Amino acid sequence: MNWKWARRLVNFWPPLFFAGIKATSISEDFRRIEVVLKRRFHTRNMVGTQFGGSLFAMTDPWYMMMLTYNLGRDYFVWDKSAHIDFIAPGRTAVRAVFNLDDATLERIRAHTADGKKYLPNFAIDIVDDNGHLVARVHRTLYVRAKPHKRPLG
């Protein structure tokens, strides 16, 4: 899928759209994505800071999408688990940047070459407009070659 169309589609995908989450940048190779959550009346909690569920949701689909695109259709890629550490209240818009490098892709391919699953971990920092850390999300994905790409045996 073209990166421009992908950005348009995910920005109107109801779970992200209605949560106020927006992809502001997707690189042509799907290896870098920037996401923003503006502070609006519907993204605040009862004390006026960014709603924790929205902070968590803003990290949800990106690594799965990036890995699926970069590894190709011969792999299963799913989210396995995630947790969030809240560091400071989000009083402004917040953003997160997702990066996928060659070394990570090679490590995943090497660990799945024998047909076994691999569980790569990613840490995502969510920062406010002043660059202060608001939360850190740890995501674990499940990656495995599809049956037709696994070695026989």
TrEMBL record:
<dbReference type="Pfam" id="PF14539">
    <property type="entry name" value="DUF4442"/>
</dbReference>
<protein>
    <submittedName>
        <fullName>Acyl-coenzyme A thioesterase PaaI-like protein</fullName>
    </submittedName>
</protein>
<dbReference type="InterPro" id="IPR027961">
    <property type="entry name" value="DUF4442"/>
</dbReference>
<dbReference type="InterPro" id="IPR029069">
    <property type="entry name" value="HotDog_dom_sf"/>
</dbReference>
